[in-house]
UniProtKB/TrEMBL annotation:
Pfam families: DUF2794 (PF10984). This is DUF2794 domain-containing protein. It comes from the Bacteria.
Length: 114
């Protein structure tokens, strides 16, 4: 007999979801705030999935995202767990340091302000 002699079926373990931690979100939201102030970005969406967490950035609500900031912990020891993906699906930058990866978007902010 097992430990769970309640007479019901065993409950499966909750499906693990990848999420951004508070520290990561703080870095992302800092950039997001500057881009909104520059008039470049207007909206965002967060997705927490089994393989990755995604922060999607939109110029207008209800359109395809301009950029996706992805966190894929399984790639930590390969290309890096963070990546910035463009609207066309092309990876613009990837690595294990979130601030370094986000610099590819900050360059766009500098051009927008000039």
């Amino acid at each position: 007999m097992n430990d769970h002699s309640t007479g019901s079926f065993p409950t499966p373990p909750p499906s693990e979801q990848i999420a951004f931690h508070r520290r990561e979100l703080s870095v992302i939201m800092s950039l997001y705030g500057r881009m909104v102030a520059a008039g470049e970005w207007r909206d965002y969406g967060l997705s927490h999935l089994r393989e990755m967490a995604v922060f999607s950035v939109f110029r207008r609500t209800a359109e395809n995202p301009l950029y996706r900031i992805e966190k894929r912990p399984k790639l930590r020891n390969r290309q890096g767990q963070y990546s910035v993906v463009g609207m066309d699906g092309q990876i613009l930058k990837r690595g294990n340091d979130l601030k370094t990866v986000l610099r590819v978007l900050e360059r766009k902010l500098i051009r927008a302000v000039e």
